[in-house]
Predict the structure of Porin family protein.
Amino acid sequence: MQRNTFAALVFAGCAFSSSAVAAADNIYVGGNISRQTIDADGRDFNVVSIVGGYKFGEYWSFETRLGKGVSDYSRDDLFEGISQLYKEEIDWQISTNIRGAYPVTENLSVFALVGYSQTQREITSNSDVLDNYSFETKGINYGAGLQYQLSEHISATLEYQIMPELEVYNGEIDWDSLALGVQYHF
């Protein structure tokens, strides 16, 4: 009885480890740096993100990104003779995406992605009129890009995304992102 149990455990362990290795072949991790532009007063932000993905078919991947703003937008306004500093920055950003890729050559692929993103922005001011606050923007993001396979395990990406529109008191403001990234494929 013990011999059969031991054999069953060894067999199960081998089966699990081989499926884990096959699953690991479909995993990729990496990072992006993006320049995000909000179409109001020339607001540009840099965001550094980590990327983790799983390729679940020949052309399809599921990925998650977690980013942190590394720059801000600020201006100094003069209001009734008093200098007022306004500063805006991306605190954090997360997105979940489905990505479809199609090979153009052996090393170059085009891809499109669609997903859902959430971003928290912080606004600070030394003004008596404008309080310091933070707010989240949530919604659908979509885009397209190129991926170039540099080696068996490393690729570089260039992509353009449309982010969810920012809702403001008098309408909506467009927001887009241009990113350069590197990924390691297991």
Notes: Helices lie at 2-24. The two ends are 39 Å apart (CA to CA). The chain has one domain: 27-185.
